Structure formats: structure tokens, C-alpha cells
């Protein structure tokens, strides 16, 4: 029998909130599917649209923007800027017809380990439901 | 005799931690002792903080870690102070380090012992008894020190004399030693700070509230219940049946404002935390019905009134002004019987859960310890201080901060802590830097332009990683990756052995990059950075791969996939490591002179503290006189003489050779940044250019003139502030005072002015004392004599002052008579006063906007200045080198102004004493060739660190915080974030998966 397919999800975490929330999930042994690869940035405001598009073209089935909750940004307002960039990317990806689930934004605080794990489980299921990214397949042709 | 350049801080809550960091940063060796196993205090237990609902541990945890890693702070958990000998400048403090039966030099905090321990279901102190722990335990996951402790009252070996040793077997590091004994030590210190905090009031004697019922919790227990790292991982449910409560009641003033149980004071925080807990509950489930039963709602603090309003308007919290008689159980439900004060009748209502908003009290042990050392307590059982010396005890060289000194919230605690640290810094300034250590490092090896030689260390972390991930498999895989010249497995990379191995291999194999596959960089990166630096490798050539928190611990049942993922995580880190560049941490020299704007009591106090630390101060005052508002105040709530305080302070300022006073002057043309400011001081006579390293804004405020309110004319209808000046000459048989005139209304005066209620009762008592026959009516919305001012409210009522409540729908009408609805008798009453006194709020200075613009610091919507962080940085601005204190920050009484002034001076002393500031290494760095000067980066920077000069972006490294937001915004790729460069992150992206 063929092994169950695990999606490849690139996860951008800010150093102060969502990376710490992901750590907290680990400390609490909150089990998650092994679908994510984390890239730590200091602030979600550093998540460059270029990184996101590269990840998708390299074959990520989804890319997640995560950071501090609005109002909690360690750098005052970096997460607002992340949100704007996310929305801009969303428009581009909509335009080319990529499914909505493949680019997501989630605010996670440093103490929300349970929420973090729950979110990763949820996203993984969503991506499993829609299958591998068509971008990867297009690219390989 | 020379003073000793070290300080003992007793108590590791947020106050003690802040003071320790400030002291250590300003050149003193600090011993921070905490009797509990870990530091963090009550703040670590909170879910969120009011009024911003910030996650409490998220904002406190970086401070815990910073203090534990500071080279000049010894964090001694599980340690008690026994006695103190000696005198100011040279104390001997005897301490007892209680044994944990765990060797803290070996314990890695992995928690394997607690997982295996068979003694379960011990009520967890950290969870306030509603959660459980084992007999060997680490209180919470981010605990500092992160070390296990054996509770000998429950351990099978100690309590039951059994042979067990399960934990010892589980500990592969070999840290557990049942024979370890308590250790005693004498510390020689120059000063002592009591930051011993307070404890939540234990309501067990108040049987009328059913404190033992499983669905009646204290607010602190409820805080744990809501918290994601609490016993129910944040699910609010009843302990009786596990159901989610639909109706929750908060009962206020449990263990506060209750002379019957010997607690006269108001605890000052409970109203606001009740609203916070209600809002969070509502955010969990908007359908939950919440009622808060309160007597007077006391939103006395910056942003609290607005928070209260949000609770009412946005969250629909039901605030019931009442007195609760009892709580009783019927049919599994809880019924609250109370007197509804608005309708003056007794009612009953059913709830699923009842939260007791318990006050802050002092533990007997702490009080006994403090008094045994000769430090006086006041009648409330807190450390006694005076208005003009809010952080100094009766014993020279012994200081106090936080709730040990009286009930208060976190920002006030933090301000006092920085204030006490500042005072201690000035006291011991001759011995600054005498006991601090600084590591000498070897020269760094050259790596630029050379082919990377990468060493990879894969940590087993006992069985934490090695039990899941196939470590030898990872090592073999890593060896196949280009540029990896060495890969090995280590049992515990963070141990001394592990670090020695890294050190040796850097030398032996001439490694130019190190990758550590282990736990999280958030806790361990600084340790390995230090090891690399000691081996002559620039620390920024080190990269972490988190295969524990992000892999082995979350894929415990998928060993193969976990191993596969671990390989990829390490490969990503190697890809980044290959491209890493050494970074330098530039030093910016600091001009050791200070500017203080405003010479009221706050500005003068700050100037004096700075001068006491040896720093020259320019003190600029807009008016012709020193003393600000305080010189017009004629009495103080506790009976101290304001004239004497202000008079002595002015005299000390005028006599101080280090302080240059500029009366009738204003500051203009400010330029520069932290360390190197320039400005002009302009007076009608002259214009002078000054240079300074830091600035303190103490521009004060003024009393609101209530033109158009209640027929204000300055004669028969005057303000409370005007009454203050003429109070000894008042000829009136009947006086009506009206509270909240022009406050707690529409923007910008949405706030509660904090001091007016105390001011009104103080003046009423004073008049009653002079002429007992005078009839005095105080018309109020809530009487907000918060904290220990509560006793004045009691005293005023005893003196016969009549309090009549009004609300916004039925405001009093002032003509010849004052007409007001009295809810107690249920009808309007008419009073014919000779004098009407309007209590008006403090309002910000009209030139705040201008001052703010000059120093690039923001104002809040109320037009008071907006600090860097409402909770933890109350006197700092986000802009480095500029500080804030007193009324410029918001309305507050004199002792709080003085504490903030000391705090601002103390914080400012850190760069001044060091003579330099260390620039961030991870900063934005523009490439001049590619920059087109579009200024998008300038617009994106929240710290004003980027400017366009001669058509090119320039980053001020002293101001850049390294978030990288401008880098992402740069359309030409000219801006880079060091250590997170575009090519470095892209390399990670491309190596993320085995495609």
C-alpha cells in the first residue's frame, strides 16, 4: 500500500510570537503532522513575497504567514505590514487561480502552543483534501 | 570605607527582575534571590495583562531569560534571605540555598524526571491548586532557572521512606542526588532591595462566599483556568461537572476595603483585572453572561477607564453596583444575594460559576523577615515609605519596590523598580563597575571569501531527541552535504562537555561555521554564541536547527517521519550557515550629560537623581519658577507638608553644582539620537546651544479649567485646585463638591484623572477639621480612593461628609441650589451651597505635541505622552535615549511622579554610566549602488531609523531594531537585513523539502 501523502508546508514564524508559540507546542508535546518546515524571521514584516513565491514554485503545497497578534507586534507594527503584503499576494495568487488554502495568515502568541498545534493539524488536513500544489506540477513540465 | 558595588534583590517577580536588569546594566553585580523554585512571580501566572490584554508570559519571559543570562546577575532560585548585618554601602546578607536534591549544574531542564515520577496529583502552586504536578517538577515550561526540584513533602523517598529512584533512572544526565544538602552563604552587598511582592488574599475565612465550593474560584485560579498553559489548556469549565459555565459572576473587594478582617485598603488592581478576565472569557465565548458585582469601579490608571468602557460597550459585561451579602448553593447552582445599590433593594441571581476578586495581601513570613531586619511596616502591613521617598525604607541602604510597598499594578511596580535601581545606582556610584565582569575574547578568525568549513553537532538531549529521531542516521546524512567537514552526535550539547567539544573542534578542524541541531534558539542560542566567540569564531557564524520543539517532541509517534524532517531541518540550517557573514556590534559613544525638560517635582527629582549619579544636567523650565504644580498644593493626603517637600527640592536643585537651571526657557531645534543629541535652549535674554546624551521629558500637566461646566465662575463655583490655594480662608456653611467634571467623558478627556477623589476627600476632611459644622456634600460617580487612600474615604464619612452618587443620565444641576437625584432615598434633593467645588482632571500640556515632534516620540489619544510599553516600559520611549516621567505620562499623585522620576533617571543612567550603547548586530543595511532613494523604507520604519540623505537610504544603527520590515519593502533589493539576508532565507526556502 502506498504511504499516506504528507503535504509540504513552508511556515514563516516571527521570532517573538509564533516561533515561541511553536516552541510552546513542543514543550507541551502537542502532536502535529510532520508537514511543516519552519523559517524563522525576526518579524512577520520580514516575510517577503519573493520568499513565498519561491516556496510555491519550489513545490510547497502551502505557505503560512504567522506572527504576533495585531497590537502585540514586538516591532510596533510589522505585523500590519505583513498583513498588507499577505493580502497583496492573495490577490496575485487568486488571479492565477491558486486555491485559497495554499496561502494563509495566522496570528499566534508565544503562549498559544495548543492553538498552534491545532492550526497546523487543521491546515494539513485542508491541504490533504486539495492535494499537491498545481504550481509545482506546472513548473516541472 | 568604600562602598560595595553589588546589590541583593529579594524577590524574583517582575519588580525584582526589572531592578536587577537595570542595576546589572548600570555596572553593579546583582544577586537576585527568590524563595520559590523559579522567578517570574505572579505575573508569570497571569494569562493576560490589562488594559491591552497582552499575553503576560510572552512579555515577561524575555526578561526572565535575560536576567538568567546576564553576566552580572546571579539568579538564585529556591533561596531565602535569613538575616542582614552591617550598614548602607556594606551589608552582609546571610542566605540559604534550599536543596532541590537536583544538581542544578547538571540538570538540563528536559523534564524527563517529572514525566516518570510516580507521585501524581499534588496541587500545583503555579496553578494555584487547580492543576497538578509531580513530586519532582519544573513549575512551568518557560521556568527560569529551568531546573527540576524535588518536593520532599511528597517524594516517596523523603515523605514515605520508600525506595523509589524512578526519577534518578529517568535522568540520563545524572543530575538527581538525594543526598544534596542546603547550602548557606554570606553575601557582601552595598544595598538591599525588597521586591518581595504580595500574595493573593486567601478567602477561606469568608465563608459567606462559599470559598470551598468547586465552582467558586479566586481570580488568580480563574486566571490559570483561562491560560493556554494552565491545567485545562485554556478551556473554561466548572470543576463540579466539567461543563462550560454560561453565567459567571465576579465579586469585587474580597479581602479589600473590609476593616472587619483587618484590611482597610483597596487593592487597586481588582476592578481592572475583573474586566480583563471578563473580556477574555467573552473572547473565548461571546455568549457567556458576565456580571461584576462592585461597590465603586476604580479604573485609576492609564487607559483603564477606556478599558472599563470597552467592557461595557463592546463586550456587554454587566456591571452591578452592589454589596454582596452571600453566595449559596441550590440545585447545583450558585445564587448570589446582594443589595442593588442603584435601586436600594435586595436581589438574588443565579450563576454557574463565581469568581472572587481577591485583593493583595502580605504573607506573615515576609513581614517577619522584613521587620527582623529593622525595616518598618506601615499600618497596612506594607513596607513604610514617605511621599517624597517612595522607594526608600527607614534603614539607609535598604530600598523597596512593587507591591511590598503597597497594592499596585504592573507598570507602577516596574516604575518603582527602575526607580529603586536608579536610587541604588546613585548611592553606590563610587563603586560602579568594581565587581562586574567582562569576558576577554580572543581575536576573531577571518572567514570572508574562504570556502565554508561547516561543523554540525546533533544533540540527543538525552532521550528527548534521540528517543525519537535516529541521530546516527541524521549525522550520516549530514556528512554527505557539501561544505560539511565534520558532523557528530552529542548527548547534551548544552552541557559543559558539549560546549568544550564545540570549542575544541572549531580549533582542531578550523571550522568557519557551526550548526547546532538541538532545541530552540530562543533559549540556547546565546550560550553557543558565547562558546563560538570564546573559540575565536564570530557568533553570527553559528546557526541553530530546532529538531526538538519543532520535531521530536511533536512527532513522538512517527519516528521515521521525524527523522526525515530532522534531516531537512538540519539541511536548511546548513544552507543558511554556508552564506552567513560575521557581524560586528558597533559601539556608539554616549555624551554623559542629560537634558531634563520641566522643573516640576518630577523634573527636579529626575535631575537630582542624575546629578547624584555624577552626571551633569541641563534643567529647562518654561516658567520663571521651579516647583511646578506642587508649589500650589497646601496639604497632602498622608499629612506630609508639600511646602517643605517642594522647598527642599528646589533648594537642593539650586545648590547642586551639576545642575544648570534655565528658567523662562524652551528647548528647540533638537537633532541627533541616543548618545549624541544637540538642541537650542531659548530664553527672552539668550540662546544657547547644548549637547547631551539622553533627554527626560517631564513637562507636567495642568488642572482643566471647566469653562461652561456647572456655572464655573472662579468665585462661587471654583475648581478643587483653586480651593487648595484658599482652603484656610474658606467661609462657607455648605459646600458641594462635584467629581469627574470634564473627565471620563468624550475624547480627548476620556480618562479618569486618578487623583481627584483623594483630593476631594482630603480637602473635605481638612475643612471639617477646621470647621466641623460645615456641611459638605461630595457628588460622585465612583469614589476612587484607590490603594491606601481608601482610609481617607472612611475618615471623611466618619467626619460627616455626605456622599451622593450621580450618574451621567442624571447629572447634578447647579443654580442657586444644587439639584441632584439621591438614589438612596429615591428622590431629588436640593442643597443650597455657599461654595461649589468642581473636581477637574489633570490635562496634558499644550506644547506636548511640539516636544513630541522634536524628540520623535508619540502622544496617546489623550495627548499625554505614549510610552514604549504600557506594562513593562512605563518611563521609556520606543525611541532610545528619551525617557518620560510624571504628569507628562498621565495623571498621578506625587509619590508616583517621584517614583517615575527616579525610574527615568535610573533608566537614563544605564547609557550614561556605560558611556556607550551597543548597537544591534542584526540591522538593516542599504547598498548605496542599488538604492534609488525612493524612501519607501523610511516610511515603513516604525523607529524612524531610516532617513534619505543625498538621495540614498541611510540606517541609523543606534535606532534600528532589526525587524527587517524595510528590507521587505525595498523595491530594488538595495536594503538587506544582516543575518537574515534575502539569499540566506531563500537558501532555507529552497532546501526546506527533499523535492
UniProtKB/TrEMBL annotation, chain A:
InterPro entries assigned to the protein according to its UniProt record, in alphabetical order: MvhD/FlpD
Residues annotated as signal peptide: none
Ranges for domain F420-non-reducing hydrogenase iron-sulfur subunit D: 9-131
EC number from the UniProt entry: 1.12.99.-, 1.8.98.5, 1.8.98.6
GO MF, any single term: oxidoreductase activity
Record's keyword terms, sorted: Iron, Iron-sulfur, Metal-binding, Oxidoreductase
Keyword Repressor appears in the UniProt entry: no
Domain of life: Archaea
Name by which UniProt lists this protein: F420-non-reducing hydrogenase iron-sulfur subunit
Species of the source: Candidatus Argoarchaeum ethanivorans
Lineage summary: Archaea, Methanobacteriati, Methanobacteriota, Stenosarchaea group, Methanomicrobia
Amino acid at each position: 500500500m502506498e504511504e499516506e501523502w504528507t503535504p509540504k508546508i513552508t511556515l514563516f514564524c516571527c521570532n517573538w510570537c509564533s516561533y515561541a508559540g511553536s516552541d510552546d507546542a513542543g514543550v507541551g508535546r502537542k502532536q502535529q503532522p510532520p508537514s511543516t518546515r519552519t523559517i524563522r524571521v525576526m518579524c512577520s514584516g520580514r516575510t517577503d513575497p519573493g520568499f513565498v513565491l519561491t516556496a510555491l514554485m519550489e513545490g510547497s503545497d502551502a505557505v503560512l504567514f504567522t506572527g504576533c497578534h495585531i497590537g502585540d507586534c514586538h516591532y510596533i507594527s510589522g505585523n500590519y505590514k505583513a498583513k498588507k503584503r499577505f493580502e497583496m499576494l492573495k490577490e496575485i495568487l487568486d488571479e492565477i487561480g491558486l486555491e485559497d488554502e495554499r496561502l494563509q495568515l495566522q496570528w499566534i502568541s508565544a503562549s498559544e502552543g495548543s492553538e498552534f498545534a491545532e492550526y497546523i493539524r487543521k491546515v494539513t488536513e485542508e491541504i490533504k483534501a486539495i492535494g499537491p500544489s498545481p504550481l509545482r506540477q506546472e513548473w516541472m513540465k | 570605607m568604600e562602598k560595595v558595588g553589588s546589590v541583593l534583590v529579594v524577590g524574583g517577580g517582575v519588580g525584582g527582575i526589572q531592578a536587577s536588569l537595570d542595576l546589572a546594566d548600570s555596572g553593579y553585580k546583582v544577586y537576585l534571590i527568590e524563595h520559590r523554585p523559579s522567578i517570574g512571580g505572579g505575573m508569570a501566572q497571569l494569562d493576560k495583562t490589562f488594559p491591552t490584554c497582552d499575553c503576560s508570559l510572552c512579555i515577561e519571559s524575555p526578561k526572565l531569560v535575560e536576567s538568567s543570562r546576564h553576566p552580572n546577575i546571579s539568579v538564585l532560585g529556591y533561596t531565602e534571605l535569613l538575616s542582614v548585618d552591617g550598614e548602607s554601602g556594606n551589608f552582609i546578607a546571610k542566605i540559604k540555598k534550599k536543596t532541590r536534591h537536583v544538581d542544578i549544574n547538571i540538570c538540563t531542564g528536559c523534564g524527563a524526571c517529572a514525566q516518570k515520577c510516580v507521585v501524581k496529583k499534588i496541587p500545583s502552586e503555579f496553578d494555584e491548586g487547580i492543576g497538578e504536578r509531580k513530586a519532582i517538577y519544573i513549575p512551568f515550561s518557560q521556568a527560569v532557572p529551568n531546573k527540576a526540584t524535588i518536593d520532599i513533602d511528597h517524594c516517596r523517598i523523603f515523605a514515605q521512606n520508600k525506595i523509589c529512584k524512578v526519577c534518578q533512572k529517568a535522568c540520563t544526565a545524572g543530575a538527581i542526588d538525594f543526598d544534596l544538602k542546603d547550602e548557606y552563604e554570606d553575601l557582601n552587598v552595598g544595598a538591599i532591595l525588597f521586591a518581595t511582592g504580595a500574595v493573593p488574599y486567601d478567602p477561606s475565612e469568608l465563608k459567606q462566599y462559599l470559598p470551598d465550593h468547586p465552582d467558586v474560584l479566586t481570580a488568580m485560579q480563574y486566571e490559570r483556568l483561562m491560560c493556554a498553559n494552565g491545567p485545562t489548556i485554556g478551556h473554561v469549565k466548572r470543576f463540579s461537572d466539567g461543563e462550560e459555565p454560561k453565567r459567571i459572576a465576579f465579586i469585587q473587594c474580597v479581602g479589600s476595603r473590609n476593616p472587619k478582617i483587618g484590611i482597610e485598603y483597596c487593592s487597586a488592581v481588582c476592578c481592572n483585572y475583573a474586566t480583563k478576565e471578563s473580556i477574555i472569557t467573552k473572547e473565548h465565548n461571546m455568549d457567556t453572561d458576565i456580571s461584576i458585582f462592585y461597590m465603586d469601579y476604580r479604573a485609576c490608571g492609564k487607559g483603564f477607564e477606556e478599558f472599563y468602557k470597552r467592557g461595557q460597550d463592546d463586550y456587554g459585561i454587566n456591571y452591578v453596583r452592589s454589596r454582596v451579602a452571600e453566595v449559596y448553593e441550590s440545585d447545583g447552582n450558585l445564587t448570589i444575594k446582594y443589595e442593588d445599590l442603584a435601586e436600594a433593594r435586595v436581589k438574588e441571581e443565579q450563576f454557574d460559576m463565581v469568581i472572587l476578586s481577591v485583593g493583595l495581601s502580605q504573607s506573615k513570613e515576609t513581614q517577619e523577615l522584613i521587620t527582623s531586619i529593622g525595616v518598618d511596616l506601615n499600618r497596612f502591613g506594607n513596607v513604610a515609605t514617605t511621599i517624597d521617598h517612595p522607594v526608600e525604607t527607614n534603614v539607609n541602604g535598604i530600598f523597596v519596590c512593587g507591591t511590598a510597598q503597597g497594592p499596585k499594578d504592573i507598570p507602577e511596580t516596574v516604575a518603582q523598580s527602575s526607580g529603586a535601581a536608579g536610587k541604588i545606582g546613585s548611592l553606590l556610584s563610587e563603586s560602579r563597575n568594581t565587581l562586574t565582569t567582562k569576558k576577554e575574547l580572543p581575536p576573531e578568525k577571518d572567514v570572508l571569501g574562504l570556502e565554508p568549513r561547516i561543523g554540525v553537532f546533533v544533540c540527543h538531549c538525552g532521550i528527548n531527541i534521540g528517543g525519537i529521531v535516529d541521530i546516527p542516521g541524521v549525522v550520516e546524512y549530514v556528512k554527505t552535504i557539501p561544505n560539511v567537514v565534520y558532523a557528530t552526535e552529542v548527548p547534551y550539547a548544552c552541557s559543559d562537555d558539549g560546549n568544550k567539544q564545540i570549542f575544541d573542534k572549531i580549533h582542531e578542524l578550523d571550522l568557519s561555521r557551526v550548526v547546532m541541531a538541538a532545541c530552540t534558539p530562543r533559549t540556547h542560542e546565546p550560550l553557543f554564541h558565547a562558546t563560538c566567540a570564546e573559540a575565536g569564531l564570530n557568533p553570527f557564524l553559528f546557526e541553530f536547527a530546532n529538531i526538538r520543539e519543532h520535531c521530536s517532541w511533536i512527532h513522538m509517534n512517527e519516528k521515521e517521519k521525524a527523522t526525515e524532517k530532522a534531516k531537512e531541518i538540519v539541511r536548511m540550517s546548513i544552507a543558511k550557515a554556508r552564506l552567513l557573514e560575521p557581524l560586528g556590534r558597533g559601539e556608539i559613544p554616549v555624551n554623559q550629560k542629560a537634558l531634563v525638560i520641566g522643573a516640576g517635582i518630577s523634573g527636579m527629582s529626575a535631575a537630582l537623581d542624575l546629578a547624584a549619579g555624577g552626571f551633569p544636567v541641563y534643567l529647562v523650565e518654561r516658567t520663571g519658577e521651579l516647583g511646578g504644580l506642587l508649589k500650589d498644593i497646601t496639604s497632602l493626603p498622608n499629612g506630609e507638608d508639600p511646602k517643605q517637600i517642594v522647598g527642599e527640592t528646589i533648594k537642593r536643585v539650586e545648590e547642586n553644582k551639576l545642575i544648570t537651571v534655565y528658567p523662562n526657557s524652551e528647548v528647540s531645534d533638537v537633532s541627533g539620537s541616543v548618545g549624541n543629541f544637540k538642541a537650542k535652549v531659548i530664553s527672552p535674554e539668550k540662546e544657547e546651544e547644548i549637547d547631551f546624551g539622553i533627554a527626560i521629558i517631564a513637562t507636567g500637566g495642568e488642572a482643566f479649567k471647566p469653562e461652561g461646566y456647572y456655572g464655573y465662575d472662579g468665585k462661587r463655583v471654583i475648581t478643587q485646585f483653586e480651593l487648595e490655594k484658599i482652603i484656610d480662608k474658606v467661609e462657607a456653611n455648605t459646600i458641594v463638591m462635584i467629581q469627574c467634571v470634564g473627565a471620563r467623558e468624550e475624547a480627548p478627556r476620556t480618562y479618569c484623572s486618578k487623583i481627584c477623589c483623594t483630593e476631594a476627600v482630603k480637602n473635605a476632611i481638612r475643612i471639617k477639621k477646621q470647621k466641623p459644622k460645615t456641611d459638605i456634600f461630595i457628588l460622585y460617580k465612583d469614589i476612587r480612593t484607590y490603594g491606601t487612600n481608601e482610609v481617607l474615604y472612611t475618615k471623611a464619612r466618619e467626619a460627616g461628609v455626605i456622599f451622593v452618587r450621580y450618574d451621567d443620565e442624571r447629572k447634578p444641576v447647579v443654580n442657586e441650589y444644587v439639584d441632584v437625584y439621591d438614589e438612596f432615598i429615591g428622590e431629588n434633593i436640593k442643597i443650597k451651597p455657599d461654595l461649589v467645588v468642581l473636581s477637574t482632571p489633570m490635562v496634558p500640556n499644550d506644547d506636548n505635541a511640539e516636544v513630541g515632534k522634536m524628540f520623535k516620540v508619540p502622544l496617546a489619544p489623550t495627548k499625554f505622552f505614549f510610552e514604549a510599553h504600557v506594562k513593562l516600559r512605563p518611563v521609556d520611549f520606543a525611541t532610545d535615549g528619551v525617557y518620560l516621567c510624571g504628569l507628562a505620562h498621565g495623571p498621578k499623585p506625587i509619590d508616583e511622579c517621584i517614583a517615575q522620576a527616579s525610574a527615568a533617571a535610573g533608566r537614563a543612567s544605564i547609557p550614561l554610566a556605560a558611556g556607550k550603547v551597543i548597537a544591534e548586530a542584526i540591522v538593516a543595511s542599504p547598498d548605496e549602488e542599488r538604492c534609488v532613494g525612493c524612501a519607501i523604507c523610511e516610511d515603513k520604519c516604525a523607529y524612524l531609523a531610516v532617513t534619505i540623505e543625498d538621495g540614498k537610504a541611510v540606517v541609523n544603527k543606534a535606532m534600528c531594531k532589526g525587524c527587517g520590515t524595510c528590507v521587505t519593502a525595498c523595491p530594488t533589493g538595495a536594503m538587506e537585513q544582516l543575518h537574515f539576508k534575502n539569499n540566506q532565507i531563500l537558501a532555507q526556502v529552497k532546501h526546506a523539502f527533499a523535492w
